[in-house]
Amino acid sequence: MKNKNLILLKTMLDSTSQWNAYKYGSDKKKKGKIIGNTIGVALLYMMLMSYCILTCIGYGKLGLTRVIPSICALTISMLALVFTFFKTNGYLFNFKEYDMLMSLPFKPKTVAGCKFLYMYVKTLPWYLSISVSMLIGYAIYADITVYTVIIWLLMALLVPVIPMLAASFLGYIIARISAGFKKNNIVQTVLTFLLVIFAFSLRFIIESVFRDDRVEEALETLADSVNGITDIYIPAKWFAKAVTDTDILSFLLLTVTTIVLFEVLFILVGRSYREINSKLKNHAASGDFKMSGSKQRSILNAIAFKELRRIMGSSICMIQLFMGELLALLIGILVLFIDFDDLISTVTQGAPVTSAMLHPSISLIVYFLIGMVSSTAATPSLEGKNYWIVKSLPIPEKTLYQGKMLFNMYLTVPVAVFTTAAICISAKTPLLMSLLSVVLSVMLCAFSTAWGCVCGVKHIKLEWENEIEVVKQGTAITLYLLPNMIATMVLIVLSVFLGMKLNGNLVVIILIFIVTLLTFMSYRKVVKLCR
Amino acid sequence: MGKKAILEIKGYTKVYGEGRKAADNVNLTVESGDIYGFIGHNGAGKSTTIRAVVGVLDFTEGEILIDGHSVKTEPLECKKITAYIPDNPDLYENLTGIQYLDFIADVFEIGSSERQDSIKKYAEMFEIYDSLGDQISSYSHGMKQKLAIISALIHEPRLIVMDEPFVGLDPKASYILKQIMHEMCEKGTAIFFSTHVLETAEKLCNKVAIIKKGRITVSGSMEEIIGDQSLEEVFLEDEDEK
Question: Within the 9-28 window of chain B, which residues sit less than 8 Å (CB to CB) from chain A?
Fold first, then answer.
């Protein structure tokens, strides 16, 4: 008899597998899209692997070959922790097919465990691509044996599991707490936001506690820093020891610890799985509606308002789409109370960067927070099964997407303007440049909105099982993010550099011109796609 | 005064990948005041036809006209006067009932007082008025169906297209919907709906079409088609004919 867990896991994987869709689908257009997506993802893998190999070459040239295994384990662990944390809410709890799965003869522990393994298998290729490429980079400089390769690859399978379990545990705690509240999705979102903000500020908290003490010392060299972290995060140390010192005991320790933690976590989760999910799926109904006036909105505002309600109703969407705005808002408030130069010094670890140098790039820094995710890249696909509603309405597609874009402008512009103005005040930016920076921030919001919409409409995916597939893993979101992130980072460096050579106002004006042009081109593309 | 054709389907054909025909040369006309039943087996092509009529699904050949406007070339003109109620209404679960109705009313540009009156009227008729402030995700299947029906009625369409409208409705709501259908028809609205409940179709419709494997096999006025028989007998006889 086949193992039930394997059957369930295989079914979960098949249900979202592109290969399955390609093999059994008859729509040639869809098959073409799958091939296109596969090529796109392959390119991303190649980019990631090239980056990892080049990083290792850099470490090798600096004589830091011995820290490569630790860095590999830490990088994978960090990515696994962050990505799993954002996904737990949609994958482990409150997922669509919960009723169907729980009505089948599976133990709650099996369902939860398989959901976790599903997340693991789906993300494993990314983690393996990092570890394999870092192994290649390591092999260039270190004297490696067949044993090193085997143990590295075997342990690469285990390294992401413990951080994934930790993230799942945090997700479980949040789900358990929020399940006790009537408005559980709001509580879930707030708790997640709080935890992320705490994680972001942890470094600053540590620094303020150990100022001029251990942290400064520990960060003196990369090697010391890595060693310091591996002393705290033991699994990374086991990985490094097993690889560099051929320590089989470390390999066994990582294997046993992973299995034990998996079992413990899912025994714990399994005990209250039904209870948590029942509460999360239970929607409060008061049944006491009284008509108290109904305001007529314009069609665009009606669509924008509908988008707001749609996103506010889902903690997954809120966490993914509002996080940048929240962080920007917090930084905007923070800089009003602390000196901007102190903040720069903390972020850059005392690098010789002054607030005056950053004046031309203030808008881009704000954009780096709020512009890395655009609701317009996700909302077309989020229509999902509701697509019939907008399709059967008497509005042209252009109007629909204009409404979605209006929502993104409502979401981003006030935050961008506030944070830019707050940073300008804190950084004592001259008035003219402050005004230009605010204009640039607004234009960047417009660009983000229009470019997001291009990606969202061009790569619309209406058939999905979980919102995570749209707001976190969707092609539209990925294609929006990557060039945007790279371009923003390059522009920040470039604007700082040019700001020192040219007039800062001129640099910002040039940027406004370029961004306006890009926004116009993106908007025209949206209109064209709607036709 | 002669009746006006509200919905005209001429040579409508829908071919899916690999050449499978879901609808093959479908022709029918629904006039103002008609209650037109569209019946057939599961997979016969009813929903495919209905989804093409309301502009949700593209089609391969033929023409669909609503009040003289082409669904292909003038989709907005068609949608402005059409209401669609799907068989399994997937609504915006995170909106409250009233927010969803307000959204539809905004899109159809219905004024505040006008919409309040019709929402109140229909919501009270279907007994979901008290639940309009609750999220749609808390609604039962029947309540969602009722909300979809109300959203279709508030803009007073000239053509109502419904896919299995009675599925999930309680007996009272079914009765009210039938009453509303009669009222709308008296005002000149045309109704085109699919159903499996042949008794209902026989009593309610003045015209009927039977679709089999994507082709219309029987169509016309109810009296002409059933004669002395029941619609069930006509349908089964048609099924037996190869």
Answer: 16-18
